[in-house]
Amino acid sequence: xxxxxxxxxxxxxxxxxKANPGDTYYENYLWHYNKRKETxxxxxxxxxxxxxxxxxxRILEIGTRTGxxxxxxxxxxxxxxxxxxxxxxxxxxxxxxxxxxxxxxxRYLGILEETINKIDFQxxxxxxxxxxxxxxxxxxxxxxxxxxxxxxxxxxDNVKKMCAKDGVIVFDDLSLDGMNLLDIWTEFQDKYxxxxxxxxxxxxxxxxWCIKKN
Length: 214
Fold this sequence. Notes:
Helix content is 41%, strand content 21%. With 214 residues, it is of the alpha/beta class. A 7-stranded mixed beta sheet has the order 3-2-1-4-5-7-6, covered by helices on one side. Helix 1 (6-19) runs antiparallel to helix 2, helix 1 packs across helix 4 (68-75) and helix 3 packs parallel to helix 4. The two termini are 20 Å apart.
């Protein structure tokens, strides 16, 4: 995996902090960095590394919020026109986040309008909307939605069958600095260890990823 310097991650976060002064993710990530320093590794580092090496064309996110994860992922592309589709699943119901804000942030970073137009916003409970994507297959899947253990377990099981060969499922917030979902990830690994190659890094909020074998 390519090493992504923290400076790359924070450059995007600083830029989007200017676009969204009320969002506190920049400060949140500074806290994690100051705790871990150069060992800090999180979903944004993984997104950059995976995009540089694999350039996924079909992307699914459960839990989008303001689009920061997607912004980091797409910032790693030289040419985002290769992307075929992006499906974003979120409730968008807290009075701050919205599909319009996600698109605004992508435009603020200079992401092509052609790419933004390929986004399909699935607004609602992922436990309901994701199973309806019956004919979809993705090579990059992020599960970062409802962080209750039961909902996280259901989201992982729902996307498992949607992962393309050599594609990846990424699961956030494993550690105590996140949402303490390591047990859900371990359970998923035990169930599907013959179908996926599993990895994890707990030097931050905790991230696990698994690559589809065949």
